[in-house]
């Protein structure tokens, strides 16, 4: 098996995709948002962009337990 050639545009393409996900968080899963935040936190162009990505990651991670609790509550109500 051979490795595909690496494009020099790879990092900039991934950063552009991450920015697109962050720009439209309402239409993307938490997993994809987390991935985008991690990309921007590591490869963001400015320190402000990296810091904002880290803050959004905290927000997305903080709301996960609430969603889990809501799903569990809905399951109990259905019984």
Which characteristics define this entry?
79 residues; 3 helices
Structure description:
This protein has 79 residues and is mainly alpha-helical. Helix content is 76%, strand content 0%. The longest helix has 32 residues, at 47-78. It is elongated, with a radius of gyration of 17 Å.
Uncertain runs are none
Q: Write down the oligomeric state.
A: single chain
How many strand elements? 0
Helix-strand category:
mainly alpha
> How confident is the prediction overall: mean pLDDT?
85
Overall outline: elongated
Q: Separation of termini? A: 52 Å
What is the rounded Rg? 17 Å
Helix content: over 70%
Approximate strand percentage = under 5%
H and E order: HHH
The number of helical elements comes to: 3
> How many strands, what sense, and barrel or not for the largest sheet?
none
Quick structural overview:
The protein has 79 residues and is an all-alpha fold. The chain is built from three helices and no strands.
Give the SSE layout.
Layout: H1 10-23, H2 30-43, H3 47-78
Helix pairs in contact: 1-2, 2-3
């Amino acid at each position: 098996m051979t490795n595909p050639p690496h494009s020099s545009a790879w990092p900039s393409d991934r950063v552009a995709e991450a920015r697109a996900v962050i720009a439209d968080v309402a239409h993307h899963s938490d997993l994809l948002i987390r991935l985008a935040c991690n990309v921007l936190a590591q490869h963001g162009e400015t320190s402000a962009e990296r810091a904002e990505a880290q803050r959004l990651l905290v927000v997305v991670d903080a709301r996960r337990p609430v969603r889990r609790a809501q799903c569990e509550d809905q399951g109990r109500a259905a019984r």
